[in-house]
Write a structure and sequence with these properties.
Blueprint lengths: L1 H21 L24 H29 L3
Helix pairs in contact: 1-2
Length: 78
Amino acid sequence: MTGVLQVLLVVSSMLLIALILLHKGKGGGLSDMFGGGISSNLGGSSVAEKNLDRITVALAILWAASIIGLGLIVSSGG
């Protein structure tokens, strides 16, 4: 079980880093490289940005759950 949680933690960490870098910041940043700078600001966030936010939050919850699970296993001596 520990090995599965460790793999899940590594994979979710890498994906979380990539998703956070894709978010549009105040200066555009890395998201401009992938076409993020083209969108207009007419009605707030676009559907793609909202979906990116949802995926990032879900992945962050999975990441936190894997850390808590690993912590509980290590603290119980397993």
